[in-house]
Design goal:
single chain; about 300 residues; seven-stranded parallel beta sheet; Rossmann fold; 7 strands
Length: about 300
C-alpha cells in the first residue's frame, strides 16, 4: 500500500463554524431555468484532460461531464483523489483515469506530477486550472496577512505554476498545442466586500489568462477563463452566505437566510446558478467549438 501524503486541509471547519444548512431555493424560483435539451456529446473522445481541484464541487462535476464525453482524466488535488479514479474506472471501463496528489504551490511537485501524467497518458490536450481557496471573510481593517498570503500563493502562484508546467508539455508534444481554462471569479470583477484577498487573486487570474493567451498562441495553445458569480447549493455557497453574515458589514444582513436572498435577488434571473451551469461553459472553452477564442473570460452570472 503506497504512502499517502499528509497535507493539512485548506479549510478550518472549527474556525468557520458552518452549519449544515444549504440555503437552497425551489427550482421554480427565478427565470430562464436550467435546461439540458441541447447538450453536446463526444467532443472529448480519446482526449486527455487534467483537472486541478478535482475533489471540489466544480472539479467533480467537470470530471463527470468530461467522462460522459469520452475523455481520459488526470485528477489532481491537494487531497487524495484515488477514490475518484477507482469510481470512474468502474463507470467508464474503456477510458483511462489516474489520480495525483499535489500541492500546486510547489513547483517541484507540479513538475514531477506533470511528467508522470505525460508518461501515463502520452499527451495532454486540456487543462481545467481550477484549484483555489476562498479564504477568510473580513473587513480590510482586520484581514489577516497570513490568510492574504495563503490565498495569493494558491490562487495566483499555484495557478501560474500549473499553467506554466502543463503548457510547457503542450508546446513540445506532437502534434503540439492544447486548451486551458482558468477559474477566475466575479469577485475579481465586482470587488466583493469582505473578500479583499480572494477578489484580488481572481482579478490576477483573469489578467494572467489574457497575457498567457498572447504568449502561448504561437504554440497552438488557447487560454481562457470563467468568472462565476453566485453558484449553489454546495459547500462554497453555504460558506459564502454564512461567513458574509458573520463578517458584519453595511452590505449584507447578519441573518444568513437574508444574505442568501440578498444575493440571488441581485441577479436578473433571480436565482443562483447550478454547478453544472458553470461547467457547460468550461467544456465549451476547452473544446474545438471555441477554436477561435483565446484570452476571453466568460462571466457566469445570471445577467450583469
Amino acid at each position: 500500500m503506497k504512502n499517502k501524503k499528509k497535507i493539512k486541509k485548506l479549510y478550518d471547519s472549527s474556525k468557520d463554524g458552518l452549519s449544515s444548512e444549504l440555503y437552497s431555493f425551489e427550482k421554480i424560483k427565478g427565470f430562464c431555468h436550467e435546461k439540458n435539451d441541447t447538450k453536446a456529446y463526444g467532443r472529448f473522445n480519446g482526449k486527455t484532460v487534467i483537472i486541478t481541484g478535482a475533489k471540489g464541487d466544480f472539479g467533480q462535476v467537470c470530471s463527470k461531464r468530461m467522462a460522459e464525453e469520452g475523455a481520459n482524466i488526470g485528477f489532481l488535488d491537494i487531497l487524495d483523489t484515488e477514490s475518484l479514479a477507482i469510481q470512474f474506472k468502474k463507470e467508464y471501463p474503456d477510458q483511462i483515469f489516474h489520480s495525483f496528489q499535489v500541492d500546486i504551490t510547489k513547483e517541484d511537485q507540479a513538475i514531477k506530477i506533470s511528467n508522470k501524467i505525460e508518461k501515463k497518458f502520452k499527451r495532454i490536450d486540456h487543462l481545467f486550472n481550477n484549484a483555489g481557496y476562498q479564504g477568510d471573510f473580513s473587513n480590510t481593517l482586520n484581514y489577516a496577512v497570513e490568510d492574504f498570503r495563503k490565498i495569493i500563493d494558491i490562487n495566483v502562484t499555484g495557478a501560474f505554476i500549473m499553467l506554466k508546467t502543463i503548457s510547457n508539455i503542450m508546446s513540445k508534444q506532437e502534434p503540439r498545442g492544447g486548451s486551458i481554462v482558468n477559474t477566475a471569479s466575479m469577485a475579481g470583477i465586482g470587488a466583493t466586500p469582505n473578500m479583499i484577498a480572494y477578489s484580488a487573486s481572481k482579478a490576477a487570474v483573469k489578467h494572467m489568462t489574457v497575457i498567457a493567451a498572447k504568449d502561448l498562441a504561437p504554440f497552438d495553445i488557447r487560454v481562457n477563463s470563467i468568472s462565476p458569480a453566485y453558484i449553489g447549493p454546495g459547500f462554497m455557497w453555504t460558506r459564502q452566505v454564512e461567513l458574509q453574515a458573520k463578517a458584519g458589514s453595511v452590505y449584507f444582513s447578519e441573518d444568513p437566510e437574508q444574505v442568501a436572498s440578498q444575493m440571488v435577488n441581485s441577479v436578473p434571473m433571480r436565482r443562483y446558478g447550478s454547478i453544472n451551469e458553470v461547467i457547460g461553459p468550461v467544456l465549451f472553452l476547452l473544446s474545438d467549438d471555441s477554436s477561435y477564442l483565446t484570452g476571453i473570460d466568460i462571466k457566469i452570472t445570471g445577467g450583469d
